[in-house]
Amino acid sequence: MRDRxxxxxxxxxxxxxxxxxLISVAALFAAVLVGGVLVFVSGGFATCxxxxxxxxxxFCYNPMQVYYELFLGALGHPLEGGWQLxxxxxxxxxxxxxxxxxxxxxxxxxxRAGLLNIGTxxxxxxxxLATAVTVVxxxxxxxxxFIGTVVLIPLGVFAGAVVGGFYGAIPGxxxxxxDANEVITTIMLNFVATGVTATILSWQFQDPNSNxxxxxxxxxxxxxxNLPLIGFSxxxxxxxxxxxxxxxxxxxxxxxxxxxxxxxxxxxSGLQPEAAAYGGVDERRMTVASMTLSGALGGIGGAFxxxxxxxxxxxxxxxxGFDGIAVSVLAGNSPVGVGAAAFLFGVLQSxxxxxxxxxxxxxxxxxxxxxxxxxxxxxxxxxxxLGLRFRPAGTSxxxxxxxxxxxxxxx
Amino acid sequence: xxxxxxxxxxGTAAAGLAGIAGCVGGFGDEGSSDVRVGMVYATxxxxxxxxNDMARQGVVNAREDFDLSFNETEPGSAxxxxxxxxxxxxxxxYDLITCVGFAQADALSGxxxxxPEQNFMIIDSVVEEDNVRSYVFGEPxxxxxxxxxxxxxxxxxxxxxxxETNPDESVVGFVGGVESPLIESFQAGxxxxxxxxxxxxxxxxxxxxxxxxxxxGQSAARAMYxxxxxxxxxxxxxxxxxxxxxxxxxxxxxxxxVDDDQSVSNPDFADVILASMVKRVDTAVYSAIxxxxxxxxxxxxTETLGLEEEGVANVYGxxxxxxIPQDVKDQVAESRQAIIDGEIDVPSxx
Lengths: 411, 350
Known about the structure:
The structure holds two protein chains of two kinds. Chain A is mostly helical. Chain A has two domains: 1-61 and 360-411, no CATH class; 82-359, ABC transporter involved in vitamin B12 uptake, BtuC (Orthogonal Bundle). Chain A is built from 14 helices and two strands. Chain A has a two-stranded antiparallel sheet. In chain A, a hairpin with a 2-residue loop joins strand 1 and strand 2 (57-59). In chain A, helix 2 (17-43) packs across helix 3 and helix 5 (120-138) packs parallel to helix 7 (182-205). Chain A is globular. Mean pLDDT of chain A is 86; it is low at 406-411. In chain B, the strands form three sheets. Chain B has a six-stranded parallel beta sheet, sandwiched between helices. A six-stranded mixed beta sheet of chain B has the order 9-8-10-11-12-14, sandwiched between helices. Chain B has eleven helices and 14 strands. Chain B is of the alpha/beta class. Chain B has helices at 2-24, 51-65, 81-91, 105-111, 139-154, 181-197, 214-227, 240-251, 262-265, 281-293, 326-340, and strands at residues 35-40, 68-73, 96-100, 120-123, 132-137, 159-160, 163-164, 171-176, 202-207, 232-236, 254-259, 273-279, 302-305, 312-316. Mean pLDDT of chain B is 85; it is low at 21-25. Chain B is globular. Chain B folds into two domains: 35-137 and 284-291 and 299-304, Rossmann fold (3-Layer(aba) Sandwich), CATH 3.40.50; 139-278 and 320-340, Rossmann fold. Chain A binds chain B through residues 43, 48-52, 59-62, 64-66, 68, 79, 88, 92, 210-214, 235, 237, 310, 314-318, 353-354, 356-360, 363, and chain B through 19-21, 23-24, 26-31, 38, 69, 71, 73-74, 77-80, 82-84, 86-88, 90-91, 102-103, 105-106, 114, 125, 180-182.
């Protein structure tokens, strides 16, 4: 039994990139199958007018239809007539993908440095508010039109990154110089962020024309612009430029990890802190620097949430930062993997909304389906990470400088 | 062998695709109703036994009378309203989209001009667009009524069900969801009603900060009963109000419900619920659906449902109502008529 287990772990650890992709796809199908049975059976306990009568039971939910909405609804129903590429469903999917890339990268950077940043949500919240406030006030000075777009958007994103980075640096400093566990401090700083932003909002920046807790809107020209002709229409709250920026940032982080000395030091600190210290890495500075970078990425996520989605900051920021943790884990903390994982999450979130409007299946059940898919897809990776710890890949081979991780290039 | 496998895969894929195509149109569809309604609820969500459930009751009633099907979403926060409304509007399958709650006004004023062919209705707020019908209620008037009742009872020695008043102190309480002009108008009406009944009575108030914070509602109400000697607490806080009832039961005091007759919707607490300030959200939803069915939906109009239209009313508790002294009921009935006749001016702001 033990040998059998060890064999399976070895097999997982030694899996090639292609095999890992195949395993993920197979896991996806298994999740769909299990979820489908679940949907069908729970349909037997619901009441409806049109159902499938089978052996005295009425089954209300059609698993086929649910998955059709989940996956194809997220793309805007491409099999139905009148489909066009720039549709609302796909825009929602890509909008979520864009935002989750930022959040996922934020978590991944900290993870790779050996730090669990649970505080991406808080960094995103304060970063977003900083962006909204900066742009609203700067808009009074900066001329409108094209110049306004070119000046205000980078300024807003920069403000979000700076404030988010600062907010991420706090737990970094506490960890480096006070030995405070970053998991606890970042979790608590999430609550601090929610409370402080709500207070600042009602104290100074509340939109006087609204009952909802939110800032005044940024001028239209300061929202992320859409590409002419091939872009999505303005009301869809998604811009290809933002996605392009997120992808560029993702590649930039991958390059940082793989090709720069800072990235090398960061990864070494995560894998083997003692070795890194022995090799001349200033552990404390690295902790603060990686947390700052992580926070800045979270802040950029907040900036894009403000400038792309709502055009203003709203209280009750959706849980992008927490989803970012799942995205990063699913991606095995690899920056490029974050893109794929964020897209999966984007599909699931957009598809869930499509299920909500297209079928009678309750949202709780849709949550279970999404959870199953994430769980099934993440599990092989999880066991691979576990296996790596206990049964390092190719122990008979000479050790490699990247700690046997295999580097990012082939991931 | 390889060819066999490939053929098998191709066959499976073809069969699978055909299966999907065949099944998707099958059962589980909404059916082919004449009218489809999309419901976007307020953040308290369904199961609040008040505001959202009332709105749902309206569409359920309509379904019994018309060939109708409906679909619903429960956004978790204000940032989701925009997307939820748009999901319904974008599909183009819905004849009416019902937006429940004032917090949806911002999102709706952006979406309504975007989908000019789509009929919307909004409850508790006014959105001036040609395709939106707005419903607002006379909350201050209704709250005045229950305030009058509370003000009269707090001075009397009155015990019924699981509660009793504290005749030595004239203190009543108000628990609100979030501080917003709408909820404050409940408080303003309530305070005016209490003052009308008894000038010396004191009203203590507290805002919990959310419509689904039952524990927060309970601790706020408990503080009023224990520390401030309140004996009757009125809530305008959605599901948070359930906590107010729990506190009333624990302390052996009374509470006043809101939105629907909460002594009926929450029978567990019927022994402490004196009355409810009923707000006929269901009537509003029903009448909007009816107008869509009859093809005479009047967009761009605002309908105000006050005491006179019976859009708001003081409804005595199912269990305790009979025990409330008749002279108190008579006085409350008199003030109702006086408000309708314009003899009493009810403030809508604090």
